[in-house]
What we know:
The chain is of the alpha+beta class. It contains 20 helices and 16 strands. It has three domains: 7-83 and 549-578, no CATH class; 166-337 and 420-489, Alpha-Beta Complex (Transposase Inhibitor Protein From Tn5, Chain A, domain 1), CATH 3.90.350; 340-417, no CATH class.
Amino acid sequence: MAKSHGAMHVATVTSRQVDxxxxxxxxxxxxxxxxxxxxxxxxxxxxxxxxxxxxxxxEAIRAILRGEQVLQAGQAxxxxxxxxxxxxxxxxxxxxxxxxxxxxxxxxxYRDLAMALIIARVVHPASKLATASWWDDTTLGADLEVxxxxxxxxxAAMDWLLTRQDxxxxxxxxxxxxxxxxxSRMALxxxxxxxxxxxxxPLAKRGYSRDGKKSRTQIEYGLLTDPAGRPVAVKVFPGxxxxxxxxxxxxxxxxxxxxxxxxxxxxxxxxxxNARISAIRADTGSNLGWLTALRAPAIKTLATQGGPLQxxxxxxxxxxxxxxxxxxxxxxxxxxxxxxxxxxxxxxxELLAATEDSLAPLVAAVAAGRLAGADRIGLKxxxxxxxxxxxxxxxxxxxxxxxxxxxxxxxxxxxxxxxxIYVLRTSVPAEHLDAAGVVTAYxxxxxxxxxxRTLKVDDLDLRPVFHRLEDRVRAHVFICMLAAYxxxxxxxxxxxxxxxxxxxxxxENPVAPAFRSTATERKASRHLDxxxxxxxxxxxxxxxxxxxxxxxxxxxxxxxxxAMLAEPTPTxxxxxxxLNQPLPLTLK
Length: 588
């Protein structure tokens, strides 16, 4: 580990080269270096190249770093400028390690602008206009030469990136979904939505809002990932698109665009319906499989008297494989999570009580004669009764002068029997995936939900969407997806410095809830790692990296300036150690 107090000095490096005439030439470079000890070895870190300075200035710097007082304090050097550097340098280092610049396309102005948009979305998500201004205030703008970029240039870069979307996503699919890197041959797909600002985008429609913005138009977008939740592709849909329709588009993308015909698509119970399963089966040109869950009515049918789903199945085990004539050629894996059963029972009781409390004033008003008439009473009740979705469990008796509300105890008890029980269905044969593996594969959908939190809430601030043109909306979502891809890897790489669980425990029982490792619990409670180094949230770590600045220093008596990094903290040094990159003076 490099020590932050390592000695700084000016090193003169001499190199010799033979030119075409056979004459030997000698070159000298003057470098500002920090010396530190790591693993018992002395190492050097280059902070600045001062070869271009006049000899007198170089000697002055050398003397100052030796501790000599050449001039009065404050007169030897002057800092003429300072820009945040560490955060963008770390994100750029991760992007370079992933080959992201090359993935976007050949080098050029538009690629640099696109990379700057992606990095800014990771570090400082904001509108495009605010982002362009932010570039000027970090070393990202200077090093990628995007400082002062116009709005037209930024939008042109978005348009250029959108034309590359299919090619980029195909390469990502080959990298993360092909059999060589994805031996389970599984892909996860889910749909989310974000609300729109403005009223002129053709994609903006009213639909089921996952953001709770029922009064706003929205767009929907489907995210395709590998089993670990690593984003691979995204597709934007109008805001009123149904989940099954989006799923069929994802299947076409996997089959036609990516050329993957042997893959298992994993989706939730609202995504992969009977109609979609029939469509997959009818497609003789592919061998795509599927894995999903049954809806509550279908589970209730399986649990009817004489059905295969009975409570005795779970007397000794939490999961069991069953069959039913309604699902020929499929596997059904029934699971019971006792923790989920307890939670659902508690929640149902609380919601029933809340519904009854909401109706209590009406019951009192009717009893006191302040509210009369069956029609008037019914209208008042109708506005309240299903607020908590518990109307199905209550029986109402309404007359002109009375209102009686009672619970349907038998129905509630029948539902309680199925608490914590869910049934998975899949076309994957047992020799390829056992019952426990099916449960694990379905629970991996939580990884996609985590990606949506990254996109919408935690990191990338995708919503709301302000763009008016369809292609700009699609480009915005695609930029956010690439930023999520970059963030996914950054979180993995920097896990030792954050609260992220570096080694999540393997669950012996796949039905049981997930839990964090002991080391992560200790890290979360102490806010220190095992070596007593501070840990931060991912966003807090990026903010800390921003304090590592690159300064423009002018030596007294000259007009020459040189770039020099501030003294990095131990945490900042560890970040670049985890990235396996030296702390760079410039991004490129």
